[in-house]
Design brief:
There is one protein chain. The chain is an alpha/beta fold and 414 residues long. The protein is 43% helix and 10% strand. It is built from 14 helices and 7 strands. It has a 5-stranded mixed sheet, with helices on both faces. Strands 1-2 form a two-stranded antiparallel ribbon. Strand 3 and strand 4 form a beta hairpin.
Length: 414
């Protein structure tokens, strides 16, 4: 990562926020002047000349609100049939927690990543309700089931997206290493937990086998099983190029890193007024690219083979610079995909951001206690990520799931 040169903290001119007075406060408290502080004259009957105002914003004490639903029972005077009114659809038990409280429980554990026991403790301290971890798990399971249609809609929408981002990271379930896979765009997220990292897991997700757009990824070879177009994360390649320059002192890697950044700058500038570079620009950049890879081949000639022993099967072991150079030679089109198609980003930061909080969850909890628990967390977290990308309040969106109306912002575009 290159230092920006900026000072730590907020930058000059950045948009800030501050607490401001409101015109109509919820409560007004008048503090009276009863006597003169100078001569002690009684002022109780004098009218106030003016007021000095100060406002305090605070949270009032919160306690559970109980609602009793009573269904009328009436006897028909004509036929004697007993008639009972219907309860609301979400009132199914003699005593139960409402959707808002269940949403708060799921919010604490699956969004804020607070463990079960501490989530229950917080609900007890704030709302005064003694909720058990088992109740929280039941709320999660209910939320998981209520998001099945949402997840199917997301998968269909991702299939229709011209560009998707993919990534994977380790995920411990019952102490055993599994894998978390993410497929996402700027407006939606899909997570999947699977024992495998490769194409078996990707096939089971049911997205990549039928996808015909552009997959942006970090050069995990399993993605190349799929016959769609590919875009490689150039941010990842820049880090590898920097490592080669620093540790192997090769010239070609530094020049290639500079070229990629120049192309990125040109694309970013052109994007404001056009949807493509000029043919002459593309030709010049590709010529420079080919020149640099040729320079790299000269810096990394094939080793002279004086060994007369029988050859071992498989690929010969190469140096890290040569392996990276081979990637630049063999995958030129995918590395420069962002230059030819402005819908393809320069890096895979979108997917990397979407897996980051899942890694935080692992640091906090260490492992999932069941595969079903991991599945529930992935589906709910995918919903939360999608809600946040669409700038909606998370707790209200979770509450909508318990009310049978999960948020699906892209239904019209599917």
């Amino acid at each position: 990562r290159i230092k920006s040169g900026k000072k730590a903290g907020g930058q000059k001119g950045h948009p800030g926020t501050t607490l401001r007075m409101v015109d109509n406060p919820d409560e007004t408290v008048i503090h009276k002047v009863n006597e003169c502080s100078s001569c002690h004259t009684c002022l109780e009957n004098e009218e106030a000349k003016d007021y000095e105002r100060r406002q305090t914003f605070d949270i009032p004490p919160v306690r559970l609100h109980s609602t009793e639903d009573r269904a009328e029972i009436k006897l028909c005077p004509k036929c004697g049939h007993i008639n009972t009114a219907d309860f609301p659809e979400d009132v199914t038990q003699p005593v139960q927690y409402g959707s808002r409280l269940r949403a708060s429980a799921v919010y604490l554990h699956d969004y804020q990543l607070i463990p079960y026991d501490r989530s229950c403790e917080l609900l007890s301290d704030v709302y005064g309700c003694e909720i058990s971890p088992a109740t929280l798990i039941r709320a999660e399971n209910e939320c998981f089931e209520g998001l099945e249609e949402f997840e199917n809609v997301v998968k269909d929408a991702l299939l229709q997206s011209p560009v998707i981002h993919c990534d994977e990271t380790g995920l411990k379930i019952i102490g055993i290493r599994n894998w978390l896979h993410v497929v996402c765009t700027a407006s939606m997220t899909y997570y999947s937990a699977h024992p495998k990292r490769g194409s078996e897991a990707m096939d089971d997700m049911g997205i990549l086998p039928n996808y015909d757009g552009v997959i942006v990824h970090d050069f995990w070879k399993a993605y190349y099983k799929y016959l769609c177009d590919h875009g490689l994360c150039d941010g990842h390649l820049l880090r590898e190029l920097t490592s080669i320059s620093e540790n192997y002192e090769q010239e070609w890697s530094g020049k290639m890193a500079d070229l990629l950044l120049v192309i990125k700058g040109c694309v970013d500038e052109t994007r404001e007024t056009s949807d493509s570079l000029m043919d002459e620009q593309i030709k010049d950049f590709e010529t420079m690219y080919d020149y640099i890879t040729k320079m790299g081949l000269e810096e990394n000639p094939p080793p002279l083979d004086f060994d007369t022993k029988p050859k071992k099967r498989g690929r010969k072991k190469q140096t890290k610079p040569k392996n990276l150079l081979d990637r630049f030679v063999g995958y030129k089109g995918d590395i420069l995909r962002f230059m030819h198609d402005f819908e393809v980003p320069f890096d895979n930061n979108q997917a990397e951001r979407d897996v980051r909080m899942m890694k935080v969850q692992q640091k906090i909890s260490g492992t999932f206690r069941s595969f079903q628990g991991a599945r529930s967390f992935c589906r709910i977290r995918g919903y939360i990520s999608t809600v946040k990308k669409n700038n909606l309040p998370v707790i209200d969106a979770i509450g909508a799931v318990f009310n049978g109306k999960p948020f699906v912002p892209f239904m019209d575009s599917v």
